[in-house]
Write a structure and sequence with these properties.
alpha/beta; TIM Barrel; Double Stranded RNA Binding Domain; eight-stranded parallel barrel; three-stranded antiparallel β-sheet; 16 helices
Length: 516
């Protein structure tokens, strides 16, 4: 693929995606996902916002040291401290980038920055030059570009280029623009910025009006050659451009996009989607394009008839093209550690020894209960082995009494910093009783916002998957748990959420600065 035909994928799942309420990840989860993104073939991975917290700095630093091929990037405002922190976090990266930004719309200059246009130009020049002290690859973004004066944008980007930036990002920060308008803006900038033929124009769209993918494709048609996107489209508010949608639109409709393509290994798209959903406990909507459960489902008789005769009648891509596995048996109760590790590696998971041993024990216990172990079961095992136990609280044993002739009653054992403690509580139902007992043991003041249950696979022996959303003092987190006993799954999900809440209190005493 020629350089001019190469659309670079800049994945910001670990930065902008994590800013979505409840989608925070711990360090181990971020490194695991970053390795999968590299396996996917992502060109640039925005690993975090290094100045935001010690936890973000540690994540960027760990990812920078872990990846071999992908370029690792840290976001930074134009502030001196931001850029210094980003540079320090990226010291071990084999390929690095600093992505610095400042707002350019009059709305932001007046109400947020309290700065004049000339001050912004001075900031841009200084910041880009400072960033070049740490890396030879600097990207500059004009926050709220789509609500900025076009001629002023030309001045700002020209300033950034003269200072040494080689990638210019034109973000639709609030999801405001339309495809035609965005196309015209990108074309205008390319026509009016000197030396534009040697620059990479980038796009970063939010989905507030449901136009993120359409806007991204319009910008590509206008000459943009980098797409900033996230897996499953997660991100602030209504989310970001969904990586899988842009990638497959270019792949399936190369005739419409003059042969433009990415270097994404499309067979890793579905595994990556599932991994992210499992890590954050954030389910993918069934009718989500490309990766939703219904994306390749056909219920209407005429559709079923057509697909049985020739799949191309109603399918413009195959499930296999995105790495969607069939629900076939992959492992059983007689499988050993070597086979189990190989299967996890194929799915993109690289577990530390302690996590692996815990996961293997859970796999064997599940295999004794279920006839068939599916990919989805393994994802659940990994999620509960790494995430649930990564915190101060760990669910031990629980006993419930419930029925039409008994008041629901639960006795729950928690390991709190390794020490077992028990509590008994009554509730409106068995799940409510379990949650009340856990609340007593953890002394949490969190409020339960949402409780969801679904079967991971079909059959009477299927695991139940529970997702809970809790909130406290403006912090909103999601917990995920799975087990063949839905009450145990509920307890695991609730404990996971409380651990995530505790982690946020520890590592993010103040809300982190928001990016583009």
């Amino acid at each position: 693929m020629s350089d001019d035909k190469h659309i670079r994928i800049f994945d910001t799942t670990l930065r902008d995606g994590e800013q979505a309420p409840g989608c925070s990840m711990n360090l181990n989860e971020k490194v695991t996902l970053a390795r999968q993104l590299e396996r996917l073939g992502v060109d640039i991975i925005e690993a975090g916002f290094a100045i935001a917290s010690d936890g973000d700095f540690a994540s960027v630093q760990a990812i920078a040291g872990a990846l071999e091929q992908a370029r690792v990037c840290s976001l930074a405002r134009t502030a001196d401290a931001d850029i210094t922190r980003a540079g320090q976090a990226l010291e071990q990266a084999r390929h690095s980038r600093i992505h610095t930004f400042i707002a350019t719309s009059d709305i932001h200059l007046e109400h947020k920055l309290k700065m004049g246009r000339e001050q912004v130009l001075e900031e841009v020049d200084r910041a880009v030059r400072q960033a070049l002290q740490y890396t030879d690859d600097v990207e500059f973004s004009a926050e709220d570009a789509t609500r900025s004066d076009w001629d002023y944008l030309v001045q700002v980007f020209t300033c950034a280029v003269k200072a040494g930036a080689t990638t210019l990002n034109v973000p639709d920060t609030v999801g405001y623009t339309t495809p035609v308008e965005y196309h015209d803006l990108i074309r205008y900038l390319r026509e009016h910025i000197a030396g534009s033929e040697n620059l990479i124009f980038s796009l970063h769209c939010h989905n507030d009006l449901g136009l993120a993918t359409a806007n991204s494709l319009a910008a590509i048609e206008a000459g943009a050659r980098q797409v900033e996107c996230t897996v499953n489209g997660i991100g602030e508010r209504a989310g970001n451009t969904a990586m899988e949608e842009v990638v497959m639109a270019l792949k399936v409709r190369q005739d419409a996009f003059d042969g433009l393509d990415t270097k994404i290994r499309t067979t890793e798209i579905y595994p990556t989607s599932r991994m992210l959903s499992s890590i954050v406990g954030f389910p993918v909507q069934p009718n989500k394009a490309i990766v939703g459960d219904n994306a390749f489902a056909h219920e209407a008789g005429i559709h079923q008839d057509g697909v049985l005769k020739a799949a191309i009648t109603y399918e413009i891509m195959t499930p296999q093209s995105i790495g969607r596995p069939s629900n076939e048996l992959v492992l059983g109760k007689h499988s050993g550690r070597h086979a189990f590790r190989d299967r996890l590696t194929e799915m993109g998971y690289e577990l530390a020894d302690e996590d692996f041993q815990r996961a293997f024990r859970r796999f064997k216990a599940l295999a004794d209960k279920k006839k068939s172990i599916y990919h989805e079961d393994l994802e659940s095992i990994v999620s509960t082995s790494v995430s649930v136990d990564d915190g101060r609280f760990r669910l031990g044993n629980l006993v419930i009494q419930s029925g039409t002739f008994a008041t629901p009653n639960a006795t729950v054992e928690l390991l709190i910093a390794g020490e077992p403690k028990k509590a008994t509580a009554q509730g409106d139902g068995p799940v409510d009783a379990v949650f009340k007992a856990i609340t007593e043991l953890t002394e949490t003041k969190a409020e339960l916002l949402q409780y969801q249950v679904k079967a991971i696979t079909g059959g009477m022996d299927a695991q139940g998957e529970v997702t809970v959303t809790i909130t406290e003092d403006g912090r909103r987190v999601i917990g995920h748990g799975a087990h063949t006993d839905i009450i145990v799954a509920s307890g695991r999900a609730y404990v996971t959420a409380i651990n995530r809440l505790e982690a946020q209190k520890t590592h993010r005493p103040q809300p982190p600065p928001r990016g583009i």
